[in-house]
Amino acid sequence: MEVIEIDAKNMHYRELNEKIHQAIKENPDLKKIILRNVLGQRFIGNSLRKKDLTIEIYGTPGGDLGMFMSGPTIIVYGNCEFAPGNTMDDGKIIIHGNSGDVTAHSMRGGKVFVRGDVGYRSGIHMKAYKEKVPTLVIGGTAKDFLGEYMAGGKIVVLNIDKEGKDLGKIKGKMIGTGIHGGAIYIRGEINKKQLGVAADIKPFTEEDLKNIENDVKEFCQYFGLEDKFESLLYSKWTKIAPISKRPFGKLYTPDLF
Amino acid sequence: MCGIIGFMSRKKKMINGEKIALGLCSLKERGNGKGSGYVGYGIYPTKYKDCYAFHILIDNCPKFEKIKVAVENILEQYGTIVKDEEIPTEEGIIKKVHIPWRYFYEVDEKFADKEEDVIVDIVMDINDNIDGAYVISSGKDLGVFKAVGWPEEVAEFYRIDKYEGYLWLAHARYPTNTKAWWGGAHPFNLLNWSVVHNGEITSYGTNRRFVEMFGYKCRLLTDTEVVTYILDLLLRKHKLPLELACQTLAPKFWSEIDDLPEEERELYTALRLTYAGAMLNGPFAIAVATPAGLLFMNGEIEDDTVMFGLTDRIKLRPLVAAEKDDLLFVSSEESAIRRICPNLDRVWMPDAGEPVIARVWK
């Protein structure tokens, strides 16, 4: 079978996740799993490695969606709870709603797209290695501590509402606290006071524009905003990046440096 | 961890307790079965509506009768026990280490001008001086039901579906720093204040010393207890408006205060200085229900129940809010709210340190 549908109504997360793993095991040519009536079940897509698999979720999945996942695509028609994309290695998570705190927590590869807003500490401790560059694209706004202790990868914030209109002044505080790698791109202007310790505003260059072009394009494709692509991309962007690679290197041992 | 959920009908529509139990069961993963509890407002609407309803846990031991008499001796010093009975429970679900007892109580007329102070004194006296008796709620037309067990066990044990209320708060506990026992489960209540809390009040020692100066005694071995007493002090005794009371629990950072216009800067500076001991440090998300007839807003008396949710200033614990018609919900997880009410008008994540407040519609 290429498509399998599971009704998750009143199902415990353990049972649901076992059913998903079993479906993959028993159907080598499986292309799509559709989950209906999902409500609060955690760890959906946990550790899956099947690259050509898509999981469609209808409802509100629980925390740690796609944790440790390496390959598949998850599409959520609804909101997400905390930490979707937690330590994800490869693949995509596309969320047609809002998502909770620590979205893309410790992500190390793949892409997470959120059409709406994200909660506090999104992109916390994202990291990159060689060709693995994790990417978080946020359509709406991010709460405080975006990219906290970020070590690598990129975060793109478009700052638009449901209709695609500009949301105006960026509200987040403590952006990039402890950042020591990677970059945060926010469409709009940021006051230096909104930055956390170790974060700095850097010039947004042609190279940066190239760096985010495909991510913005992909976002627009997923959420039916193709006509907005150019106006979004060619806007005023603020790039936030680390002051140094070791912002706290001298915190406890100032004499040694 | 810990899971919290609460809702209020702003039309004061009565809602069966099974709804809150359904929501709390959805937060089961956030607890570990070592404490669950519920509080319902409006659950005693008939004969005893105007009596103080004391819910008291009494040790289930050979000394039971003796302890009960000691409790009644304290109560009778200040008023009349109108009715008392064991709170109905289902057998065979959880080990009944305490027997929950309720007293409907009237304060003697000679204390009419300080009725609520008398109730606070009674609660402190029983919790401090009687071994084996713990007051878990003491308000009017409300009651706390809590024990060590999973959400569904505690709901079934207390037959929560036999009660109807217009405001419910509930909590699934994952005890980390203090022992798991019936009195340490949430909600915590005093008069008509009830508090459920997810997180850790690391400033507990400071806060406890602060409220002890005003005669409160922390005897229930859980940090959340102190939040209940701080609210009673700030809102009932010191008559602070609710918004400012929330500001003392989770004050603005000094750097934010520096940027305010002068008048506000003075106000928030004064608040931080006066109530330094009431500031809650550490990660927390709380949901609170407040009493009728006591809240002072902009100098006006607000005479109805209010529910609010609040997190620490840097958002170390989750809280989401949602609305459907007259209902306002707060919870640790959106899915718990959708379990009760699948189609919501609005779902949002309140800003850290900013309260979400539900008031009765006039």
Describe this entry's structure for a reader.
The complex is a heterodimer of chains A (257) and B (362). By secondary structure, chain A is of the alpha/beta class. Chain A has a domain at 98-246: 3 Solenoid (Pectate Lyase C-like). In chain A, 14% of the residues lie in helices and 26% in strands. In chain A, strand 1, helix 1 and strand 2 (32-39) form a beta-alpha-beta unit. The relative contact order of chain A is 0.09. The model of chain A has no long low-confidence stretch (mean pLDDT 96). Chain B starts with a strand and ends with a strand. Chain B is globular. Chain B is built from ten helices and 20 strands. Chain B has a seven-stranded antiparallel sheet, covered by helices on one side. Chain B has a five-stranded antiparallel sheet with strand order 11-12-13-16-20, covered by helices on one side. A four-stranded antiparallel sheet of chain B has the order 5-6-4-7, covered by helices on one side. Chain B is α+β, with helices and mostly antiparallel strands. The chains are: A alpha/beta (257), B alpha+beta (362).
In brief:
With 257 residues, chain A is α/β, with parallel strands linked by helices. Helices cover 14% and strands 26% of the residues of chain A.
